[in-house]
Amino acid sequence: MSRLPRVAIVGRPNVGKSTLLNRLVNSRVSIVEPTAGVTRDRVSLPVRIPTDFGERTVEIMDTGGIGIVDRQDLGPLVEEQVETAVGNADLIVFMVDVRDGITPLDKEVAERLRRVECPVVLVCNKAEGDRMAWEVDQFRALGLSAEPIPISAQNGEGLEDFFSAISDRLPVPREDEMAAVSVMKLAIVGRRNAGKSTLTNALAREERMIVSEVAGTTRDAVDVLFERDGRSFTVIDTAGVRKKSSFEDAIDFFSDSRAYRAVRRADVVVLLFDAMEPLSGLEKRLARYAMDHYKPVVLGANKWDTVGDQMTAQELSDYIEAELPGLRFAPLVCLSGKDQWRVDELLETAEQLYQQAHTRVGTGELNRVVQRAVAGRGPSSSGHRVRIHYATQAERLPPTIVVFVNDKRLIGKDYIRYLTNRFREETPFKEVPIRVVLRDSEDTGEDED
Question: N or C: which end of the chain has fewer CB within 10 A?
């Protein structure tokens, strides 16, 4: 099975590992905050970098700081994630902070890396300007064979030499290497302790996320690239959403906002909840947010193994439909991430939604649906004559259907919802949100549901 070459970024806390990852992907993927230990899990993303063989895609893994002192006593679990990243890496980027000089923790990390077999690139971060560049030579004392490379992850300085060092030390690319590029982003969102990280590990079939009984263990929206049956996926594990009144610090604020950003980034969203807990306003807010952004949603009833004979799947489905009427078309999967029961079914369901959202329906077929819809219930507007001329699909993901009418002001939202439901019933878009846009035949303005 082909996979991307893996590059792990390691170092003590607060040297700029997450800033470098954000710079490489040109997006704020990892939380960057002065508090030490914000990153706990492995954040992995495919990144295109220039090499001697041309542009090449590699998997970059951001890790938690080695030697972290964690207020929730999760330090050993963070260290375990770092060790796993180092053990699975094809190349290690050891990052230090030029401004702080060599610290005891830097020496400890260097001692560990001298025992690993894969190549190491020594990166000296925060080397802005000529004066800081002169301070780089001191890091030769760490005893690594790697030549220290000055960079500024914040400003993007020195990345050309950084890319060159990576290119020199990575294995020669295989012909089938690009087959490992992710085809679908799957965001897992929900309340704290719903089992999101456990489900992520079950999907990846390895311990990629720290799982703890401590609420709020996951702080960031963590991208995990994994392969299944010859296909590659990215699952985005998110921090549990919570009421804003319960935020303790800036990290809680960023964690919450990243969960909603993950919904926007995703192709498909898994709204995960504990099957034994009633749905709260938090799940309803997430559901509304996903619908507002026209994201396909899989409803995941986790911990189904604890339900027993207290409830049937149909009873749960009826309850969810009453609580989340806007998602009555979304499929429900009852599962157990801990026991890895029906996890594959959840992934297959997400793939089906992804394919539905990418489907294109011909104009002729859409117009036949419109004709049957109008015959069943014509639009009316206080004696005004309303005419629907034709419909056509303008976009995919989300499926966007433009309906041309004589005067869009005469058609209310109730009739738009009626048309949307008819499109869902008679096209392949049976389980995904549909965006219906009204447009006057003689102008370019638009109105939508």
Answer: N
Cα–Cα distance, 359 to 30 (Å, whole number): 32
Residue 183 has which token pair?
């085809």
Across residues 66-86, what is the average pLDDT?
57
Q: How confident is the model at residue 76 (pLDDT cuts 50, 70, 90)?
A: low
CA dist 429 and 399 (Å) reads: 8
| 232 alpha carbon, distance to own chain's centre | 14
The whole-number pLDDT of residue 320 equals: 95
If one counts every other C-beta atom within 10 angstroms of the C-beta of residue 157, the result is: 17
**Which residues in 30-66 are b (16+ Cβ under 10 Å) and which e?**
bbbbeeebbbbbbbbbbbebebeeeebbbbbbbbbbb
By the 8 A CB rule, do 236 and 259 touch?
no
pLDDT at 135: 84
Q: If you ran DSSP here, which 8-state letter would residue 89 be given?
A: -
17 is in an annotated binding site: yes
Query: Considering Cα of 50, then 53, then 57, then 62, what sign does the dihedral take?
Result: negative
221 in a known ligand binding site: no
193 is in an annotated binding site: yes
Distance CA 161, CA 269 (A): 38
- Ligand-binding annotation for 191, yes or no, is yes
380 assigned binding-site residue: no
For residues 206 and 223, give the distance between their C-alpha atoms in angstroms, rounded to a whole number.
14
Name the pTM for this structure.
Answer: 0.67
97 is in an annotated binding site: no
Q: What is the pLDDT of residues 194-220, one digit of tens each?
A: 889 899 989 988 776 544 444 444 445
pLDDT of residue 36: 40
| Residue 14 among known ligand-binding residues | yes
Q: How far apart are CA 44 and CA 82, in angstroms?
A: 12
Q: Is 46 annotated as a binding residue?
A: no
The pair of three-digit structure tokens given for residue 138, joined into one six-digit string: 């001191």
Average pLDDT of the chain to the nearest whole number: 82
Domains of the chain in sequence order: 6-178 (3.40.50.300), 182-357 (3.40.50.300), 363-448 (3.30.300.20)
Q: Which residue has the tokens 């969203």?
A: 269
Return the number of other C-beta atoms located less than 10 Å from residue 108's C-beta: 13
DSSP character string of 308-332: TTS--HHHHHHHHHHH-GGGTTS-E
Q: Is 15 annotated as a binding residue?
A: yes
Q: Is 125 annotated as a binding residue?
A: yes
